[in-house]
């Protein structure tokens, strides 16, 4: 790929990174479970796009394989698994009350993004290349935002999608810094994502069948009284 | 060679248990576990003598520290399989399908824990640790009550959250290794490349792995899922969870200690010390207020993880105490949970306040509970006392009086709390007059088998084990 | 030199003259999307003509504010037109009189007067509309500021003419996240500021649900004509800012030849038509938000602009 392409690729990658971050914000703020799932699929697509763009930019066939694996596991199989294991009526649930209201959550999420940038400043100051300069902070921010989603959301599906979003963030960072990880590790990691989705999906179904609702954030019978 | 068999056997047994009925599956699991233990002993011998055991062209490799963990996993796996036989059958009227899934999940869980010290590539080690959570999720939810499901949910979500954080940390370490020109991403490769890794990258990786896998190991303040999960699971599973699963997660964190030391400086030590002391302190305080005896043992796990972290952070001769503590904790904790399981079978309740006079209603169980409580609290002549003593002595020799003082204080508080709860359960008037309840035969056998090393190691450390421990401590970076 | 003044005045004439057409095209397009025929695109001209010839009724209780506001609201977009690139890519005579922030303030001045006049008229719906507009406005202000800050940061200047050229020199800048995301944030801002769905329904008749239209309910005759014209001018100006400053400077005259400048008029109209198509798609596919959900909508716009700032600050 000629040097003339590289600024385009850098900007394209930066754009996928920015949209990835937006998808992470959307997962924090969306009320309806099916919309949450769709934002996750969008985020996974952006992850695939970033992997593809960086693969073209670095001329790495390895990353092309990673992009394909990511597409298959996160965009195709995982949503299918989630739709099969979790009962359909759970997707039409809306989480009306969250721990913080949505604008406050968005502000906290923005602060977490700035925190991610700040925390990584010593690393990016080392001069990490244009691709990693975007993917690392955005990936870490995606991680923080996913963890925040797990912490403040009460619905089981929202927590699960927050968890999967965290993994997306970690993978986004991986694509730029660990792009020659042995393929077997990539495959195993993708498999792990699938198993996570499967196990948590089945657990959600079990909770729904046994308890009658999936507001897992409100389950607090186990504590020291 | 043994390493490959070590991994294939539990996989094969898991497959078999899917088709066999419950009783035969129990027998097959027991047999498989016994073979695994024998293989683990062989691997440990090879690792101590030759420095490392490897197979599959380097994809599987085990040095003394790994071999130690492997040995512990295999042993607790055996005793737990023995205990499961009687416990699961005699316990709750769980539905047929849940019971059918027990042994396959059990074996898969064991397989994932066996894989952690054996896999050479660190990225694959991460996957193994993540799989330990996923395979045990439905084991924790075995009871199928809403509390069990709540515990399972918190367990899976929080430990997976920690695992993803640790994933990013491991990726940073990989990147650092590549930047330093290292070729292999194994523990040895990472250690060799450590001086060349840029400091921000190394620290970022370390902190992420510490927080991420610290969550899985039950270090405070990320421990909130642990008492729930380790009390709601069936006792045989609890023994595995508390005894060895947290240890495998902690093992990954401990492996980073020599890496940071090699990169220059003892700056990582305060992190280990602080996390360790906070965990031990929080657990000791929570032990005073606990109301459920399985939660009591779970808090004790948090305390011991803290003690191990402190021991590693002290450095030098304390590392021997640290690896010894890993061994004694795994043995004593699993025994404690078997005792708790026997108490549950005898009384049907998990509340401490509801259990009185156990020595009259179920003497064998009471003896086991007393034994287990004393052992895990660190009373002589049990093994835990020896390892804690070794740690404290090493700390005093190194002149770290404040750290050792705090640690000793927390251990004493925990001891008093544990003994108070246990003695209230064991002694005193019986709640009602019933014929003496005896636990099922396999449970008794498991208790006896698990008790033997606890007593033995408190008095005498066999030479082979001593050499293994010394080699493992060396792997942590101790001065010989 | 003279041509610069001339072209500047030509810009004003174009905006003043063609903004009702833009409003008419938008309404017609929305109706077509809903499978209706819709009014003629020149209907707003006829409406304004009709209103100019009607009697004006002004309440005795109102003050000079009520009488002056239609003129202020009419003139404010004209002043902004003098500052922004409408037809040419090179700066015109008044270009350096004010930058983007100045233009923003002038537009806000018009809105300020309209809101006050609504309260002055003592129509209860007007007061309600004014307070709701203020709520939307105060949440939209931070987004405006951050958007302008981001583009100024990237371009190194706050003058619209200089900002617009950054996006195509080099061409790869077009895809920069600071570009794409500021476009997105500004589009959401236009929806909020100009009271389009999902923030408000511009073709609704139910006064209790109105946010923007209720402020102009009290006007009649010339005042109503000027308010209506000012409303369509505001949309046109915002669209021009969006298209010519933030999206792309294509279609604008490069040289001072009069032929090129006149050619720019239909090209700019074409760009505005594309923008109107996007607007129609957005308006037809979303539903109006409940009042307190508007804060979430603007929160999303805020986040988009913050992310644009963050990605541009990382040096890309």
Explain this structure to me?
- The complex is a heterotrimer of chains A (225), B (480) and C (316).
- By secondary structure, chain A is mainly alpha-helical.
- Chain A has eight helices and no strands.
- Chain A has one domain.
- Chain A has helices at residues 5-29, 33-58, 61-85, 102-119, 121-124, 130-152, 156-177, 183-211.
- In chain A, α4 packs antiparallel against α6 (130-152).
- The mean pLDDT of chain A is 86.
- In chain B, a hairpin with a 4-residue loop joins β1 and β2.
- Chain B has helices at residues 2-19, 22-50, 64-90, 96-118, 122-140, 146-179, 187-193, 199-217, 225-232, 235-262, 269-289, 293-314, 318-347, 358-361, 363-377, 383-398, 401-426, 441-459, 463-475; strands at 53-55, 60-62.
- In chain B, α3 (64-90) runs parallel beside α13 (318-347) and α9 runs antiparallel to α10 (235-262).
- Chain B is globular.
- With 480 residues, chain B is mainly alpha-helical.
- Helices cover 68% and strands 0% of the residues of chain C.
- Chain C contains ten helices and no strands.
- In chain C, α5 packs parallel to α10.
Unreliable spans of chain B are none
Strand order of the largest sheet of chain B: 1-2
- Residue stretches of chain A low in confidence (pLDDT < 50, at least 5 long) are none
- Multimerization state: heterotrimer
Count of domain modules of chain B: 1
Structural class of chain B: mainly alpha
Which class of secondary structure composition applies to the elements of chain A?
mainly alpha
User: How would you characterize the largest beta sheet of chain B?
Assistant: 2 strands, antiparallel
Beta-strand percentage range of chain A: under 5%
Largest interface: A-B, 50 and 46 residues
Rounded mean pLDDT of chain A is 86
- What does the radius of gyration of chain A come to? 18 Å
What portion of residues of chain B belong to β-strands?
under 5%
Topology:
The complex is a heterotrimer of chains A (225), B (480) and C (316).
Chain A: H1 5-29, H2 33-58, H3 61-85, H4 102-119, H5 121-124, H6 130-152, H7 156-177, H8 183-211
Chain B: H1 2-19, H2 22-50, E1 53-55, E2 60-62, H3 64-90, H4 96-118, H5 122-140, H6 146-179, H7 187-193, H8 199-217, H9 225-232, H10 235-262, H11 269-289, H12 293-314, H13 318-347, H14 358-361, H15 363-377, H16 383-398, H17 401-426, H18 441-459, H19 463-475
Helix pairs in contact in B: 1-2, 1-4, 2-3, 2-4, 2-19, 3-4, 3-10, 3-13, 3-18, 3-19, 4-5, 4-10, 5-6, 5-10, 6-8, 6-9, 7-10, 8-10, 9-10, 9-12, 10-12, 10-13, 11-12, 11-17, 12-13, 12-17, 13-15, 13-16, 13-18, 13-19, 15-17, 16-17, 16-18
Chain C: H1 2-33, H2 43-52, H3 64-83, H4 100-120, H5 124-155, H6 160-166, H7 177-193, H8 221-247, H9 258-285, H10 294-313
């Amino acid at each position: 790929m000629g040097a003339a392409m590289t600024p385009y690729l850098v900007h394209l990658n930066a754009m996928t990174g920015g949209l990835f971050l937006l998808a992470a914000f959307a997962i924090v703020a969306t009320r309806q479970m099916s919309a949450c799932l769709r934002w996750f699929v969008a985020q996974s697509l952006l992850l695939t796009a970033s992997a593809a763009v960086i693969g073209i930019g670095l001329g790495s066939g390895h990353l092309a394989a990673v992009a394909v694996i990511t597409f298959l596991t996160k965009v195709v199989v995982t949503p299918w698994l989630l739709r099969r294991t979790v009962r359909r009526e759970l997707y039409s649930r809306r989480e009306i009350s969250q721990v913080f209201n949505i604008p406050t959550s968005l502000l906290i999420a923005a602060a977490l993004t700035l925190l991610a940038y700040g925390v990584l400043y010593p690393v990016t100051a080392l001069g990490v290349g244009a691709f990693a300069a975007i993917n690392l902070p955005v990936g870490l921010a995606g991680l923080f935002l996913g963890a925040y989603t797990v912490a403040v959301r009460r619905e089981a599906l929202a927590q699960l999608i927050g968890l999967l979003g965290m993994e997306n963030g970690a993978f986004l960072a991986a694509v730029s810094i660990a792009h020659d990880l042995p393929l077997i590790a990539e495959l195993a990691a993708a498999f792990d994502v699938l198993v996570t989705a499967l196990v948590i999906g089945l657990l959600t179904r079990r909770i729904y069948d046994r308890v009658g609702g999936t507001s897992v954030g409100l389950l607090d019978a186990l504590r020291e009284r | 060679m043994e390493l490959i068999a070590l991994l294939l056997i539990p996989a094969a047994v898991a497959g078999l248990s899917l088709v066999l009925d419950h009783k035969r599956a129990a027998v097959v699991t027991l047999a498989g576990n016994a073979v695994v233990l024998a293989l683990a002993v062989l691997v440990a011998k090879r690792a101590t003598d030759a420095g490392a055991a490897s197979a599959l062209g380097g994809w599987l490799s085990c040095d003394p520290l790994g071999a130690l963990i492997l040995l512990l996993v295999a042993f607790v796996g055996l005793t737990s399989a023995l205990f499961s036989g009687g416990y699961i059958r005699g316990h709750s009227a769980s539905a047929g399908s849940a019971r059918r899934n027990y042994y396959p999940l059990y074996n898969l869980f064991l397989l994932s824990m066996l894989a952690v010290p054996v896999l050479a590539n660190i990225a694959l080690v991460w996957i193994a640790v993540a799989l330990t959570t996923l395979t045990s999720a439905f084991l924790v939810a075995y009871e199928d009550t809403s509390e069990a499901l709540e515990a399972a949910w918190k367990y899976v979500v929080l430990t997976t959250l920690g695992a993803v954080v640790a994933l990013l940390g491991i990726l940073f370490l990989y990147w650092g290794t590549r930047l330093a020109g290292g070729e292999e991403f194994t523990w040895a490769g990472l250690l060799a490349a450590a001086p060349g890794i840029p400091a921000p990258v190394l620290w970022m990786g370390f902190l992420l792995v510490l927080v991420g896998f610290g969550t899985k190991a039950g270090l405070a303040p990320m421990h909130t899922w642990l008492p729930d999960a380790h009390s709601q699971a069936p006792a045989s599973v609890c023994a595995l969870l508390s005894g060895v699963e947290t240890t495998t997660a902690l093992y990954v964190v401990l492996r980073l200690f020599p890496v940071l030391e090699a990169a220059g400086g003892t700056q990582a030590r305060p992190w280990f010390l602080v996390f360790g002391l906070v965990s031990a302190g929080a657990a000791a305080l929570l032990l005073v207020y606990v109301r459920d005896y399985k939660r009591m043992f779970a808090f004790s796990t948090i305390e011991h993880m803290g003690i191990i972290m402190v021991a590693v952070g002290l450095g030098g001769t304390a590392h021997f105490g640290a690896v010894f503590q890993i061994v004694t904790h795994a043995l004593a904790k699993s025994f404690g949970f078997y005792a708790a399981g026997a108490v549950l079978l005898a009384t049907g309740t998990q509340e401490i306040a509801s259990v009185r006079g156990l020595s009259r209603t179920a003497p064998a169980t009471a003896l086991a509970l007393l034994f287990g409580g004393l052992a895990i609290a660190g009373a002589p002549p049990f093994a835990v006392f020896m390892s804690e003593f070794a740690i404290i002595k090493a700390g005093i020799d190194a002149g770290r009086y404040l750290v050792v003082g705090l640690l000793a204080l927390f251990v004493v508080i925990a001891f008093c709390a544990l003994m108070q709860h246990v003695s209230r359960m064991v002694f005193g008037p019986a709640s009602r007059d019933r014929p003496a309840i005896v636990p099922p035969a396999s449970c008794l056998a498991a208790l006896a088998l698990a008790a033997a090393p606890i007593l033995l190691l408190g008095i005498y450390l066999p030479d082979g084990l001593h050499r293994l421990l010394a080699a493992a401590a060396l792997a942590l970076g101790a001065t010989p | 030199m003279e041509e610069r003044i001339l072209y500047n005045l030509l810009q004003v004439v174009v905006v003043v003259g063609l903004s009702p057409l833009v409003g008419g095209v938008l309404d017609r397009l929305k109706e077509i999307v809903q499978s209706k025929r819709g009014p003629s695109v020149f209907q707003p001209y006829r409406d304004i003509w009709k209103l100019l010839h009607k009697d004006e009724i002004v309440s005795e209780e109102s003050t000079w504010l009520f009488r002056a506001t239609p003129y202020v609201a009419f003139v404010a977009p004209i002043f902004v037109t003098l500052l922004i690139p409408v037809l040419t890519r090179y700066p015109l005579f008044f270009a350096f009189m004010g930058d983007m922030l100045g233009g923003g303030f002038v537009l806000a001045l018009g809105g300020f007067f309209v809101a006050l006049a609504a309260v002055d008229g003592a129509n209860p719906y007007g007061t309600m509309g004014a307070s709701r507009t203020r709520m939307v406005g105060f949440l939209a202000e931070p987004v405006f500021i951050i958007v302008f800050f981001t583009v100024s940061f990237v371009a190194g200047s706050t003058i619209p003419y200089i900002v617009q050229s950054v996006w195509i020199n080099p061409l790869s800048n077009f895809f920069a996240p600071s570009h794409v995301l500021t476009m997105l944030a500004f589009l959401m801002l236009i929806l909020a500021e100009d009271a389009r769905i999902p923030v408000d329904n511009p073709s609704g008749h139910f006064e209790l649900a109105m946010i923007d239209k209720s402020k102009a309910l009290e006007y009649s005759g010339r005042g109503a004509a000027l308010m209506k014209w000012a409303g369509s001018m505001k949309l046109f100006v915002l669209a021009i800012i969006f298209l010519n400053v933030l999206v792309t400077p294509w279609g604008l005259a490069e040289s001072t030849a009069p032929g090129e400048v006149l050619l720019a008029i239909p090209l700019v109209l074409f760009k505005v038509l594309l923008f109107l198509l996007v607007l129609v798609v957005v308006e037809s596919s979303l539903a109006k938000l409940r009042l307190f959900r508007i804060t979430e909508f603007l929160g999303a716009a805020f986040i988009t602009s913050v992310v644009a700032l963050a990605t541009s600050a990382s040096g890309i």
